[in-house]
């Protein structure tokens, strides 16, 4: 009888806490922070749950929900958040380092750099038997963010050195070197692990470039961009390209980097640079590729009203037709003729472009004058309805007729 009664009470307790958690989640979804906080005071009893599994899971649930409430509650203070975070760190060793990181982020968001650094230093020295091995990745993140703050301090010292003279400047420079060594060690370690580490990579590269260790920069950025163990990351290729450009690398090398970036993100803003390089090349195949790239760029809505892109396309189509390569334009247009007219050249867009940006309207009219012209291209009256653009369309039509003949 006693066992049955105890089991029933345990079930009632768990059901009550489950219901309480549902109320908290509902309050969070509706941004009712005070209501969520009131339910939270009752939910804390789940730490006394008779189910060992639920009792072990409770600290992380309380930490995540409590953090959300304290971050948004109008009466919350940094002191209360600090107190809550310290209590959470002591509730469960499995989440200790995660809570530390969350605490540090909150301190950084509130401009408390020194407090954040102190917390990272304490967390870096944390050890708890087998849990240390299990949380190796979290520990490396702790060290990486500490390296990020070391970089921040290094950057401040660098600025100070440039503004000072004499012995005092030498003293500050020594401090700067100390921060450099600390930052470099931790930043280098984190970017060895496959992942997306953009902020850490950028800081590490800045450190290395300042001390003119260009070979190390090249190796780091090449590995970050091309190591197959790392997830695809457009920024990795951008960083490598920007570094090579600063180093004055050949156009051939730069284009090889941008070619891969194009395969990953064909709508990237650097595609305009890539297109310009291809057009300056003496190889005909590069001119053909440049046309494909600029057409592809304009397939994306974000480029619809970008004057420079339309200007590039208009100029390239003109040059290509003058050189009797009508088939290049035809090939690109055939895969777009069913949707580009409505996407780019509708009567509504023509009128709006003319009212808001005459340069854009003119460049688009020049392109449409060929793509929507007679002959091999599909006829259309979409732009003809906009009388102000008709002369522009007709004036550009001659390039098509000359090429066709």
TrEMBL record:
One of the protein's GO biological processes: transcription by RNA polymerase I
Q: Which InterPro entries match?
A: SL1/TIF-IB_Component (IPR052669), TAF1A (IPR039495)
Quote any Pfam family the record assigns.
TAF1_subA
Example GO CC term: the record gives:
RNA polymerase I transcription regulator complex
Name recorded for this polypeptide: TATA-box binding protein associated factor, RNA polymerase I subunit A
Organism per entry:
Chelydra serpentina (Snapping turtle)
